[in-house]
Design a protein that fits this description.
6 helices, 60s Ribosomal Protein L30, Chain: A, alpha+beta, 175 residues, 5-stranded mixed sheet, binds magnesium ion
Length: 175
């Protein structure tokens, strides 16, 4: 098993849509950023990369590269999932906490949970979405996300692979 943790923050800005966990929420302001500013998917991407010691989101998608301007953060998440698979792991569960003054996440938590589960390829029951307001922190102008992930060895996938089949044949010859 492997554990991963990711953190991100983005500043609120007028005139851009608010996208959290791949869901566009009705709000007067969105999150500024080089990509779509999806603070939750960025923290999740870092948590997954960290769990397999594969670096961080900035290493794969440098903010200096114009290619990623306005990019859908699902692309970043897909790369992190690719690194997880490459390392021989699958996602056991995800837990997250969003910290933002507004909008209220509660009414949208189920939609965000379902979308994150869909993007990762797991069930909603494996995705925790929690939210708090930033009491006494002075960060009302920003959205913050903390994400923890647990990975487990993808044993079934490995057995089905070519290497696994060769090993099985070798083993049966010996016997
Ligand atoms: Mg970010």
């Amino acid at each position: 098993m492997r554990i991963g943790f990711g953190w991100d923050s983005h500043e609120f800005r007028s005139g851009v849509p608010l996208t959290i966990g791949g869901v566009t929420l009705p709000h007067a302001q969105g999150l500024a950023g080089h990509s779509d500013g999806d603070v939750l998917l960025h923290a999740l991407t870092d948590a997954l990369l960290g769990a397999v010691a594969a670096g961080d989101i900035g290493g794969f998608f440098p903010p200096s590269d114009p290619k990623w301007k306005g990019a859908d953060s699902a692309i970043f998440l897909e790369e992190a999932l690719k690194q997880v698979r490459k390392a021989g792991y699958s996602v056991a569960n995800i837990d997250s906490t969003l910290i933002l003054a507004a909008p209220k996440i509660g009414p949208h938590a189920k939609a965000i949970q379902a979308q994150v589960a869909k993007l990762v390829g797991i069930s909603p029951g494996q995705v925790g979405i929690k939210a708090k307001t930033p009491e006494g922190m002075g960060t009302d102008h920003a959205a913050i996300a903390h994400v923890a992930v647990l990975l487990e060895k993808a044993t079934r996938q490995r057995k089905r692979g070519a290497l696994g089949r060769r090993k099985a044949r070798k083993h049966s010859t010996r016997r």
